[in-house]
Amino acid sequence: MKTNYILAISGNDIFSGGGLYADLATYTTNHLHGFVAVTCLTAMTENGFEVFATDNTVFGHQLKSLKDVDFAGIKLGLLPNVDVAEQALDFVKAHAGIPVVLDPVLVCKESHDVEVSALREELLKFFPYATIITPNLVEAELLSQKTIKSLEDMKAVAKELHELGAKNVVIKGGNRLSKELALDVFYDGQDFKVLESPVSSKNNVGAGCTFASSIASQLVLGKTPLEAVEISKDFVYQAILHSDQYGVKQNYEN
């Protein structure tokens, strides 16, 4: 019998807008029972926003604790290093046959070339096991090693990521290509679908995490990948539209 158990393998956002907080809130909204394996902690320090990876042994114990849970779906968020990513991949392989959404979070590490290169190679290993991947423009550029400057570029990179093993790809354009519309491109290996919604200036912290965890939720609920993406696109837009103006001044004081 199919359960409503869904796992987030994701990080702790100190400002509680993204990461595991967004994942659990989205799961609850969809009446699913969410579990979390925490990949990292974050904090503002004198060096800016920093990511502190969960100890490799501790992360392994988390996954072992959950190995017998009958999950109906898995969403993967920030994987801070190769060790954590390798363990997460082994866990995904051991849970074949259920929807898996990979949100390949690389942006917070994009200035560290060696680390990004190693993580890129590791993330590519997830592609054959993921139902859908959800990179934003910068992440799609890092994964494909191509520059995206137009909607046609988005389509070309989506096709390339599919050829690298991803079954379904949605590239999140945000407002980088248009100041009026948030443009996303979905590709399933045969057809492209361009999705758009108005750009809102309200609180959008955690939008990418919410989008991926909503897609995972909809897949668990029986929707097709395209249906899941379309529903989740609207869900995120409505969430931003009805959000408050909460914000945190990201500075560090001794």
From TrEMBL:
GO terms for biological process: thiamine biosynthetic process. Residues 13-248 form the Pyridoxamine kinase/Phosphomethylpyrimidine kinase domain. It catalyses: pyridoxal + ATP = pyridoxal 5'-phosphate + ADP + H(+). GO terms for cellular component: cytosol. GO terms for molecular function: ATP binding; hydroxymethylpyrimidine kinase activity; metal ion binding; phosphomethylpyrimidine kinase activity; pyridoxal kinase activity. Its EC number is 2.7.1.35. Keywords: ATP-binding, Kinase, Magnesium, Metal-binding, Nucleotide-binding, Transferase. Gene3D superfamilies: 3.40.1190.20. It is an enzyme of class 2 (transferase). The keyword Membrane does not apply. Pfam families: Phos_pyr_kin. Belongs to the ThiD family. This is pyridoxal kinase. It comes from Streptococcus henryi. The lineage of its organism: Bacteria, Bacillati, Bacillota, Bacilli, Lactobacillales.
